[in-house]
Amino acid sequence: MSSLQIQPLATLSPPSNSRCWQSVPHPSQPLIATACSDKTVRVFSLTSFTLLHSISGGHKRSVRSVSWKPHTKGQSVLATGSFDASAGIWRRVERGPEEDFTRHGRDDDEEEDDEDYQFSCILDGHEHEIKSIVWSPSGQYLATCSRDKSVWIWEELEDDNFETVAVLQEHDQDVKCVAWHPEEDLLASASYDDTIRLYREDQDDWVQVCCINGHSETVWCIEFEGSGMGEKDFRAQKGELSEEQIQHIELLERSGPRLASCSDDSTVRIWRRQPKEGADHANGHAGVPSIIRSFSVDEEWVEDAVLPQRHDRVIYSISWSRKSGLLASTGSDGKIVIYKERWKEQISNGVTAAGVDKVVNGIEAPSRHRMTEWVVAAELYSAHDVFEVNHAVWAKRCDKGRRSDDEEIIVSTGDDGEVKAWTVEEVKPQAGG
Amino acid sequence: MDRSKDNANPTILNASDLPSRRRELSAKKRDDGGTGLFDGLVPAYNYLNDPFDGPLSSSDSDDDSFEDIDEQEIYDLIAPISDPEHPLSLAELAVVNLPDIHVEPPTSPQSSISTVVVEITPTITHCSLATVIGLGVRVRLEQALPPRFRVDVRVKKGAHNTDDAVNKQLRDKERVAAALENGTLMGVIRKMLSTCE
């Protein structure tokens, strides 16, 4: 069943004439930066969908990944990761108040500003191509990963003074993607070795705290769920909840934001952290003196869901909306798919109706009943004509046509060199249909 | 070069025994990988598949991308690729074989993406150049076929000691893209492809 429709809004112009890998929206401004195989980064306006800046002259090979530093004041800071094994930091002074970019009727003003992004510093250390680069939500750390099998964590002590705080070499192969937990200093990495690994700091050292084996092929992209999604996604729906559903919401609260992953095995999976015994939760917290508890940094992440399989080739990218909890995926088959999580239908005795298949010969499946299910809400074929789509991301809608402050668009990036914006609309049930 | 060849005495097929058919149409190159620079390196023996090298009418671009392309045409595109270590084509060495080429139609009526699967048979099981050969085949087809084709190049099962590792690399678009930015490797590939068209 589909309940949403993906409609073309704009093709950002001018398009590149070579493959583009990834487009990342600015955390506060109506901008999006695209990593291109022509060694440049293009910064487009999300109000006019036109090119504002082309950052070139830095990298000697494809730019594979970009990340905007969060919480910067008065300037934009962009980190770039390239196949030339280096990462770059670029800065640009932003004129004018950041707050009023959404105001109507002034979308030409900021584009007159032709001041360019200035190369600021280079981060050397990786031996081979950098595949992914991402700032931590606080802006304190920058993570990179590479075909050299390593994950590096950099800390910016002061402007342009970066220190390597960790070199993590747990993966057996090429590391494809890094992602930060939205609330904790917890880093995840995904690899060509088919695993996902998680790391956190333990007594001044970053260590692996979990290895997730679940995909059967290269894991291309991972992303954490947003913070506080219980207020925004299916959990926020009003209505009577069963005891089981209330317990499930509490479980998700204790687990914290989940992790989504996509793979060459054509699946998208959701992972959830098992709350630790004795960790903060409603009851039984006061009883155990923490000094006795043998504290371990190890975490256990379990499979929470496998999303309906709608891609028949490698899935390159997933994006988890911070506003709605909708998840979007795209890949080699050129499709964009949106998935939505919802409560499973309940039958009277509290057993989920769709969970009946889990009971075989009277033996329940070992895992708890799945309380929720993911359904396909929208499906778009040939988003970039016949080309592969390398990336799709949710972004705040900023153009004049936006219908609400909260409206989101999807921005996709393809092998055809194009970056496209798409609206996502509810499909109204047709009368008599 | 001191490197001794992995297989000094490969089995060679007679050119007249190779499957062929006059090509009625030929897919255009999307991107000239600079092969013209290597014209001087084209071995004189190889006129195997060079039916007409005049440029095709430029009209058959995107509009008629639904023209049928069959296994023989795929074979014709990759047969003349030179082996990286022997002065012979992949067809003559039976690295590429017509029965190991499959063109698969779109998996859904809403999709226009077809898949070309090519299984290569390296001359001996420990051939260290399997990845390079596979890369050459993939590059050749990606340059020559319309973009609606996805190209999957694999080592034929059992033909190579580390076929899973080779297959995984050949399947990984990002690694293939990075490899093609490597000048040395690209030089080898260009040389292999210089005997095409």
From TrEMBL, chain A:
One of its GO terms (biological process) is iron-sulfur cluster assembly. SUPFAM superfamilies: WD40 repeat-like. Pfam families: WD40 (PF00400). InterPro entries: CIAO1/Cia1 (IPR028608), WD40/YVTN_repeat-like_dom_sf (IPR015943), WD40_repeat_dom_sf (IPR036322), WD40_rpt (IPR001680). Belongs to the WD repeat CIA1 family. PANTHER family: CYTOSOLIC IRON-SULFUR PROTEIN ASSEMBLY PROTEIN CIAO1-RELATED, WD40 PROTEIN CIAO1. This is Probable cytosolic iron-sulfur protein assembly protein 1.
UniProtKB/TrEMBL annotation, chain B:
Residues 1-37 are annotated as: Disordered. Pfam families: FeS_assembly_P. InterPro entries: FSCA_dom_sf, MIP18, MIP18-like. Keywords: Chromosome partition. Residues 19-33 have a biased composition (Basic and acidic residues). The keyword Oxidoreductase does not apply. GO terms for biological process: chromosome segregation; protein maturation. The keyword Magnesium does not apply. Residues 71-154 form the MIP18 family-like domain. Belongs to the MIP18 family. This is MIP18 family-like domain-containing protein. It comes from Polyplosphaeria fusca.
